[in-house]
Design goal:
5 copies of one chain form a homopentamer. Chain A is an alpha+beta fold. Chain A contains 10 helices and 7 strands.
Chain lengths: 358, 358, 358, 358, 358
């Protein structure tokens, strides 16, 4: 709640500003902005952690091969603006990097590429999907990545660069961009799989022992799935964009990887779509289980009533105080009536059994 | 209700008129039509409030840079017609400006541009979304804007022009058009966010304490969302139109801003779509809560009946007046029967507990 | 019912006939076929009512400007065929004019244009939407219109021609065609608005006092809306066809009007779509109101039962005839039991109050 | 059931065969295969019934004008194969003719045309729609048609050829193909109209006196409509294919008829779509009627209980056996209690009347 | 459950690996990898079972005609990698072959073709659809197929090659690829038909004797259908891809077969779509049957209550102990009351009969 309020204030204060004004609109998720850089050629690889704008620019200038600079944390907009200015990045791009509510997209500014997408992760209790924005700027042989907070999604690629595994060291920055995107999308599968398990647990719960709580859970699933679709659908268009890029921004040699990435994206979208269908199927399950429970309750009521109301009526008849009621004087009248009651009781049981209510 | 009736009369009186007849079809929302103008170049900026047609034309003629004339209020169709005639605007455009039921659209009349869209705002109680039509005419370096009433949606841009902030003073009227549209679309976010909060309040209400009133609220949300979709969907097409415009109407230098505007529009549409999905999800919640309440009621009924009907039957048996009922003479008969009743009572409670109805 | 049967017989009798056989398939809605003609140039305008085929052809031949011939009533197929043959109209077109079940369409036969659409009106009680077919044939400077019965939908244009208002007298027959179509589409708005009011009345009824009758009304609305969609959806394609037409059939100067007409058509379609969404939203309202009513009934049942069943049980206990029931001999036993009953009664009331059932 | 089983065995026995193996997969619906031929020019027309392959080939060879050979019954695959081989028809086409589960399609093999579609008819009780496959092969001036059994769908055209009515005798085999297709599609309307009447009967039943049987009927309607859609949707694409065909296979002079046929097809599809919407609307009606009935039942239960439970309680009170119950000794005590009961009775009636439950 | 867990571990361990790393992600379904090869020309045909990489390469080298190598089992990634390397297959393709979660697709790597799709089969109890991935690599005249386990889906083609039936021996490897795909798709029909029968059984069950179990079954059907759609939808695009392929990869002579295959694929998709519609129709059936059952229960309750509550009341009245109750002294009072009760009883029966509740 607090989160949402804060974001709105930012949005309102931004209203009326000229387009391209760089204001960070998210929540500050880290104490400081951590910047790290890796420069590598096929043979060399050096890492450092530049602190100032000058150090970053120095790193870019000195690099002979691919330069990858990564920002963890976006709240220090001044540094980001300065680096972007040095690289001649359009103000609208800087605004998009800082404004964390972007839709995934790929923008071709002819002298550089700008890609934005969401990284997803499950929160501690595994029921809420958290989304963080990751932006990429690819210019010549320099790739700059912007994350909202330090995450482990890039670790695999970083390790491969250090160890010289795979072909990453042999290719240029466009392959690095692809490799990172591939990692982000692969990460989707892990999260979706975990989330899918939660959904299956809920399914089991609904099939076996549904309660009112299940409905709230289901409602949350629907909300989360709606949010997920919003992040995931534009991915398709974005990744398809890579296939249309021209040299020199994105080498033709990497097109086949872009197609592979596209396939993965489609699979992510299909999985989210399946979640959606599953939740609506589960809702039907829940509604039916509620309705079945009601039927159970009604049956018990009807059984109790059907059996005892006629019996009570019989006893009521012989509770009347008429002076002339011959049965009352019979020696075995009472026992005969008890017998009749037993017959009615058994008769009703048989009738209910036949109707399969027992 | 009154409002709707009035509008219809206008529509009917318009029936049969030649196409292009300029008739104002909305409600008059202001006493007078307020006209203001700003003329600016990169260095200069002058404002005034022309009263007559001649003054307006004079303003346009004298201006050396960008001329922006704004109409607040549309009910004085004569002035609007005269200005449009001076600028050689097609009669159908004038009709569209005055007929406030237009769908958002962008029309390229080759010698001028005509853009229409809706501005949205929440009414006093925050539950109804009000829509007002804003029209733009861009011809050469002149931009004319038409609003149904004085609003604050243009204030940010006006201030930036006065103070020379941003690049607005360095560009031509086409950038001004973009900047104003950007403000209108940004305003959508603020309204949608407020509206979204209302929806979340309703969600909380439905999850915690739904009543019949909630349903009426939900129904209103659906209506409003339907109306909103109608205004918001055509925006996409309209804004996409800017990317297809050619020089000199819309400078290529502004295309990148048009793309940014397009992204924002898509986000607005997605938000409205999410609202729609949310309301249908909330309806399910409501229906289920009603159904759960019913279950609660039925359970109580069944519990009461199941417990007391057998007990009543027992007491009925010993209320019979047979002369020969041996139990009646037993010294502790009464207490034994009370004991049996207690056993039945406790037995039923245990049974109901096991079925989880208690 | 009778109507439908009759139409089917026609259809069946038509089965097996060669394509292009002109048979009138509708209901005869007028006693005679009324034919009227208007011939006009920018300066002149003459009207008459030709009775025979020869008179019609004579009118066409003598006319120097635009010739507009209007048929009210289609059951005299011989005259229509003869005129069409004179103008070299394809047999399939003649069949389409007479067969009133056409979908709206625009057909370009290169030497003439054929347009068909539906005119809609509300019947006397305002709950059923009636549809009549209107066909247009535009060849050179001659426009022929075919209506199923005399209506007032063309009156506005006729008046403008007579009085020389607007630009209709300055343009050719293609503009006349546009002006008539514009009138027909404008007429849609009036009908839709009236129909929309009925829908709002129903909404109020459903929110305040729904009965079984409401459901039947709602069901009829759905039927009518389905029928309406069928007539309205193809309009979009048809009107879009005008924008693709070439000189000399449809002058480029009128293209801007075609675009305007297209906008109106989209608005009509959107309105019908909104009706559709509204009816499904109203159905949800109705279902919920029924379900709420049921809850009310169940509550009363449960309240009555919960209160009186325990009380009856108590009285039953003291109605037993055991000889040794000490309480029966107590002096104030009766009054104590009455007191206990009062306590139970009040206790139940408080309990039910707490659960918000009272 | 038997039917379905048989078809499956055929399918399984076909599994693993080379593509293009001609196996008849339908049910044999006729004892023998009836073959008939009509050869005609503008002036002549001769019919015969060839029995052997040689006779058929002879007929084709001798014909000077259009040759139309019709097969009623497909189970004699040898003859069909032989004729097709003579005409140099691709094996896949022969397979398609014999395999009666084809989707409607139009295939252009450049030297011949192959069209498949379904003929629909109602079965005896008018509730099930039966579908039969009709295939057409058009090569040069020869048209061969294949039906599963003798039907009357081609009779109209046959009569027109014999009598020389219409233009069929003046045109080539491509026009004959069109004329036959036109007849098949016209036949759809008749069946759909009959079926639509059944749907309206069901609607009346549901509105007036629904029972459980109605639901089964409705379910069958949905099944039939699903099956119908499957046959009808691909028709659109198929008929649209005719408009794209080139000379000499399909003469340009017949294109205008293809467009007409296309219009009819769209109307068929729309009608099926309306059926679909109607059935789902009827399902809502049914569910509501069930729910309303339930409300009725519950009301009666509640009324009976609400009235008699308090009365029974009162009588229970005075059935207690306390020694000191002063009212019991009052002279008119009994009558006063009866009076109180009457008052309670009337009071409840008034209360229920007010709540509109009576 | 175990299965799913295992797969996830694989996925996680794969995370961070360079793209194109070949890891088998499925379950090992066979003890060993079985490799078989068939080499054939129009006249010759030889089979063997190569064990080592060298033997496979030898087989390819020596072959004069078409070489078909089939892998049953994918867990020995080393062999597969080696063969693919020999044929110069891209690493991403190898990854796709081993990663069994691929969407059906056709990839044209210009020097070879890569096709992936799912084979479906029913498990032992016929309620779960199992999917296995089949990959094809077509390079020059060599076709390599990869299956997860030994199946019978290729047996038909294998037999035809051995026996020289059909045209398979006369064509190249591209026809072999088509023939195998055709078999896989034909296999779909058999499985879908069996599955459709299960669905019809369920339909019968739901119409005649639904229980809670039916709902679980129905829910499973929906799940299976969702999974099936996911495998079947991309097939359309994949098969359509064959029609766009150029020589020499896919001979024009086989295009007509590709079109036939496409038709079959569309039929598969339509069948799955029909299943989907059927399950949602069946859900409605189930919900209604539950609701009807409830109505039945409520009716019995209401009937019992309506009949016996008034009777009990009457008996209660004459069970009161007032001293002055004249009726009690009447000689036939008891019998008269019994008579009155009988009248009420019969009256209620008639009333209920009229309302059709009996």
């Amino acid at each position: 709640m607090l989160h949402r309020k804060k974001q709105k204030q930012k949005l309102k204060s931004k209203l009326g500003m000229p387009p391209g004004t760089p204001v960070f609109t998210g929540q500050q998720k880290m104490a400081t902005v951590d910047i790290s850089s890796i420069c590598y050629t096929e043979t060399d690889c050096s890492e450092n952690t530049p602190k100032t704008i000058e150090e970053i620019i120095e790193t870019i200038k000195k690099s002979k091969g691919v330069t990858w600079i990564n920002f963890d944390g976006l709240h220090d907009s001044a540094v980001i603006e300065a680096v972007c200015e040095y690289l001649d990045i359009h103000k609208l791009t800087v605004e998009d990097i800082l404004n964390v509510g972007q839709r995934p997209k790929l923008e071709d500014y002819s002298h550089y590429l700008h890609a934005v997408l969401k990284e997803i992760s499950l929160d501690a209790d595994g029921e809420t999907i958290e989304q963080e924005q990751i932006s990429f700027i690819l210019k010549d042989n320099v790739l700059i990545t912007f994350q909202e907070r330090t995450g482990d999604v890039f670790d695999g690629v970083r390790k491969r660069i250090r160890e010289g595994k795979g072909i990453v060291r042999k290719r240029k920055a466009d392959y690095l961009l692809y490799a990172l995107l591939d990692n982000v999308v692969d990460h989707y599968f892990v999260v979706l799989e975990n989330y899918g398990e939660k959904l299956e647990d809920l399914e089991t719960e609904l099939l076996e022992n549904p309660d009112e709580n299940s409905l709230t859970k289901l409602h949350n699933f629907r909300r989360e799935t709606l949010g997920l679709r919003r992040s995931v659908y534009p991915l398709r268009e974005m990744v398809a964009g890579f296939e249309k890029l021209d040299e020199p921004l994105f080498s033709h040699i990497n097109k086949v990887f872009a197609r592979d990435l596209y396939d993965h994206t489609i699979k992510v979208i299909e999985t989210v779509e399946i979640f959606r269908d599953m939740t609506s199927s589960l809702l039907d399950l829940y509604i039916n289980s509620v309705s079945n429970k009601m039927n159970e309750v009604m049956k018990v009521l009807t059984i109790m009533t059907s059996i005892f109301i006629p019996l009570s009526f019989i006893s009521g008849v012989y509770g009347m105080n008429f002076q002339n009621m011959p049965e009352l004087g019979y020696k075995y009248g009472y026992f005969i009536v008890l017998g009749v009651m037993a017959v009615v009781f058994v008769g009703m049981l048989i009738y209910l059994k036949r109707r399969r209510w027992l």
